[in-house]
Specification:
The complex is a heterodimer. Chain A is an all-beta fold. Chain A contains no helices and eleven strands. Chain B is mainly beta. Chain B is about 0% helix and about 50% strand. In chain B, the strands form two sheets. In chain B, strands 2, 4, 5, 6, 9, 10 and 11 form a seven-stranded mixed sheet that branches. Chain B is globular and about 35 Å long. The mean pLDDT of chain B is about 95. The chains are: A mainly beta, B mainly beta. At the A-B interface, strand 5, strand 9 and strand 10 of A face strand 4 and strand 5 of B.
């Protein structure tokens, strides 16, 4: 079983749609959680950190459920520019594990 | 600030050749890491460093060496290239072990 698992997609959605991604992790001792965005043939960049209380950044909302060991990302009012791969990242100690990513295509 | 820089951007090697991928950061970060990214597998940690003079192995260290003589530089050496090392290599740095990581633009390596 992979330490961090994501649905690879792709998710194909129209502009303006709401889309949600989930991610599960296996190490209950994990301490930090993130969503990164990666554009085609580019480096990953931090989208947002994920906190137990949930956090929101504009159209993006992230949630962490420690009991069930999953993380979610909700994107509202999708834009064409949101098309990318979204990486779920889990960290504990000096060990950071990246999920394989979920592809999102937003179409006009 | 340049952030994290990597050279070269592209490289083709023959099996058995050796080379060094360069990585430098100008953010005074203590933590630096090397990852490889292959289709469908996500980024996998090769080696990491928590400060100058300190390095440790990650998930897939075989066939690679690293050193950290300064805070700024963290080169990755391929000892004897193999086709299985064809991949995209990313260097990253962070001010905290579990904090936001800043990535370089990557090196696309092909081993024939």
């Amino acid at each position: 079983r992979k330490e961090v698992e994501q649905d690879p997609g792709p998710f194909n959605v129209p502009e303006g749609a709401t889309v949600a991604f989930n991610c599960t992790y296996s190490n209950s001792a994990s301490q930090s959680f993130f969503w990164y965005r990666q554009d085609c043939r580019k480096e990953p960049k931090l989208l947002m950190s994920v906190y137990s209380s949930g956090n929101e950044d504009g159209r993006f909302t992230a949630q962490l459920n420690r009991a069930s060991q999953y993380i979610s990302l909700l994107i509202r009012d999708s834009k064409l520019s949101d098309s990318a791969t979204y990486l779920c990242v889990v960290s504990g100690g000096f060990k950071t594990i990246f999920g394989a990513g979920t592809r999102l295509f937003v179409k006009a | 600030n340049a952030g994290v820089t990597q050279t070269p951007k592209f490289q083709v090697l023959k099996t058995g050749q050796s080379m060094t991928l360069q990585c430098a950061q100008d953010m005074n970060h203590e933590y630096m890491s090397w990852y490889r990214q292959d289709p469908g597998m996500g980024l996998r940690l090769i080696h990491y460093s928590v400060g100058a003079g300190i390095t440790d192995q990650g998930e897939v260290p075989n066939g690679y060496n690293v050193s950290r003589s300064t805070t700024e530089d963290f080169p990755l050496r391929l000892l004897s290239a193999a086709p299985s090392q064809t991949s995209v290599y990313f260097c990253a740095s962070s001010s905290q072990g579990q904090g936001e990581q800043y990535f370089g633009p990557g090196t696309r390596l092909t081993v024939t």
